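Appendix C reproduces, verbatim, an entry submitted by the partner laboratory led by Prof. M.T., so that reviewers can inspect both the input and the predicted structure.
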Amino acid sequence: MQLIRTPMHSETSSQTASAEKSAHDSSDSADVFEACLEKTSHALVAMKAASAVEVAEATELCRISKSKGRPIDLLEAVAKVQGRDEAQMSEAVNALAEKISITLNTAPPLIPFAGKLITPTAFYESFDRVHRIAADLLVPVIFVEDTDAIGIASINPVATEMLSQIIQDAVSRRFGIRPFMTIVRLDHESWSFLTRKHFGS
């Protein structure tokens, strides 16, 4: 195979374009993160699962944790603000997730064994932006069947609903098809294991 080397100025232009794209993707990811915080906050308050003051404090905790490279979900943050210790965390988060799932048109089923599925590394590599947003939202992709059927899971049903739309749009733009999405809810313990496995968080 013959390698064709482009002129230096073209490489520089390519590097500049790549840097601009990276900056845009980073900004885009931050926007999605903030939108998820807002939607989850509204759901928590609407279901009286947390007060507006508790949600505001928890939201700031999420932003600080993310800036330090140790992201946490808003449900975890709310549980901490409400005084839950480590021993109570899983039960508290699972209860919050159950409450806000009612706010969705279709409440995702709880499937704990989803945490045992294989990490779809090839999909993450092919869709880097999706991987970045999934890591920000802490929503692992649990299976991919030739991009025709894709499954995602989290403790936060609002976050999974948002990522589902982003994945469908990304796959549609590239392949002209909208994949069938399976959205499930994990218990806190399974979710903690899976996010560490997928995102190192």
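Residues 1-24 have pLDDT under 50 and may be disordered. Additional entries are available on request from the coordinating office.
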